[in-house]
Give the backbone structure.
Amino acid sequence: MPKLFKDILNQSSFSKSDLVTMLSADEQNRKLLFDKSASIKHEYVGNKVYYRGLIEFSNLCGKDCLYCGIRAGNKKAHRYEVSEEEVLEAARYAWENKFGSLVIQAGERSGADYVNRIERLLHEIKKMSKGELGITLSLGEQSEETYKKWFDAGAHRYLLRIEVSNPELYHRYHPNNKKHDYQQRLNALFLLRKLGYQVGSGVMIGLPFQSLEDLADDLMFFREHDIDMVGMGPYIEHEDTPMFEYKDQLMPKMERFYLSLKMVAVLRIMMKDINIAATTAMQAIDPMGREKSIKVGANIIMPNLTPTKYREDYLLYEDKPCTDEDAEECKRCLEARIHMAGGQIGYGEWGDSRHFLKRKT
Ligand code: SAH
């Protein structure tokens, strides 16, 4: 006899086929899933939502990921790098408004000048905030030496999405060359762990050729690698990328959205005490997307602090929200939204991954 959906939800571990069943939940079962994940969230991480003020530092990128709007090959993208002064200004804003933490994200670059510039910025942010601001980096694959330099300069969390955990699929979404090597990306996650970072990863949901089995594999990948924090969201096509060609094969955006919500909910049930981000791509599809993610299991949100004049240029995908708001508007609007979703903001706290802290002790 097939298992009942609600019995699967109450299991303490899940097979791949259980995960696929949960991801295929119809509207009725979806509600059971979301109720369960909400109660697990409440029990294991509470209702606090932690801020990571997001600085989209630069859209210069040496890579050519076939889905991404800021890929090197997109000659239409207008390239920028935020000045050091502007970064410090944004960091000061985050600190004065008790955001607790920052995320610095950019396209992927290396080179001594760049690496040193980031290192210097980290030192300056730490100094300015008297060590109070926590810092997450999301700057792609780097050498062990670079990761160590940045860790020593004060970064303590790193987000590096595996993008898709199946190596064969990975190669369909990336050029087939040394710069885009699955094994190397995976290895970067090991390096980050070894150096002492809280390690974050994630995937895109609703990519062409991707099945529910693949997404179940992605969830098992997070578990197998004992990931501390996850940021994942719907794939959203971008006109000036090679993958736009498959736009007619995608599931409708709302379906990608609900599938992403289910991924968040199932992950919360599987990995109860990790940090899960309510990602901007969710909001790109549904204006209340991030709040809905918080309701079903997410506990991290990244208010955008990138100076407004650069925002239009950090266009990873179409319809990216909030490109015309300044930090103050963004903060007010978020606060109200989080309260509506039953959350409470962890002002002035780092909100580290409990999963990470537990492993350490
Ligand atoms: N250079 C960094 C950060 C990349 S941009 C790195 O390599 O990790 C941040 C994330 O945006 C990517 O990891 C990717 O998952 C997501 N992204 C890129 N293009 C996207 C698209 N078309 N739709 C949805 N998410 C996308």
Summary: The pocket of S-adenosyl-L-homocysteine is lined by residues 67-68, 105, 107-108, 138-140, 160-161, 163, 204, 235-236, 238, 281, 316-317 (CB under 6 Å). The first helix runs from residue 5 to 9. The CA atoms of residues 84 and 121 lie 7 Å apart. The chain has a mean pLDDT of 96.
